Amino acid sequence: MCVLAALAAGQALALSTDRNQPMDVKANYLKTDQNKNTNPDVSTTFLKGDVQITQGSIKAHGAEATIYQDNSNKPAKGANDSGGSSKIKRVVIVGKQAHLEQVHDDDCGLMIADADTIDYHTDTDLADLKGHVSVNQKGKGEFHGEHMIYNTKTGEMESGDNSPQSRVTMRVEPKTAAPAATSDNNCGYPVGAKKPAKTQDEKH
């Protein structure tokens, strides 16, 4: 049974447009494996050396990373490839320590997390953080523990269990007198294609 560790009162929704943005990856070394003999529908990409991953406001880096892609929608060899594409299913980042950060929708506040291993599942929006986990939400609070599940979509955090060995610590900052101003520009991050401006006839 897990204990919910939501920093501050109420949940902070993560930037909703992040999942619609492309994922950019940089590293010193890269190796891909199509898994033809094991699972042809899944390919893996191994990265090593100053790995940097960006997707919208999500930024992560570590010493090594493995990216798992679902190729089940890709067309067969020689077929028309206009309708298929690879989908990133999972990203595992390791380091001393691996780092993850993301902006929140409601107040453009920054969530910063560090752990020995960050296992991010894009289909569920869950990031599994293990090993010397530290999470800080500026102006809201901070968390320390050995394991945490972070929902990159809703901002929910979950950690701990009922065993005597399980301990989590959390600090909640006092509420400020004036709440942070909300943003109407997606916190400065792209939202996608802009709508065309209305013509003079459409305005009347």
Order of helices and strands: EEEEEEEEEEE
- The proportion of residues in beta strands is over 45%
Q: Give the overall form.
A: globular
Number of structurally distinct domains: 1
CATH topology group = lipopolysaccharide transport protein A fold
The fourth-level CATH homologous superfamily is: Lipopolysaccharide (LPS) transport protein A like domain
CATH class: Mainly Beta
Q: Please state the second-level CATH architecture.
A: Sandwich
Q: Based on DSSP secondary structure assignment, what is the total number of beta strands? A: 11
The structural class is mainly beta
Total DSSP helices: 0
Q: Any idea what the radius of gyration is?
A: 20 Å
Task: Give average pLDDT, whole number.
Answer: 76
| End-to-end gap | 60 Å
Which runs of at least 5 residues are low in confidence (pLDDT < 50)?
A: 1-10
Largest sheet: 11 strands, antiparallel
Share of helical residues? under 10%
Descriptive tags:
0% helix; 204 residues; globular; single chain; lipopolysaccharide transport protein A fold; mainly beta; 11-stranded antiparallel beta sheet
Report on the architecture of this protein.
- The chain is globular and about 55 Å long.
- The protein is 0% helix and 47% strand.
- Strands 1, 2, 3, 4, 5, 6, 7, 8, 9, 10 and 11 form an eleven-stranded antiparallel β-sheet that branches.
- The protein is built from no helices and eleven strands.
- It has one domain (3-186): lipopolysaccharide transport protein A fold (Sandwich).
- The termini are far apart.
- The chain is mostly beta strands.
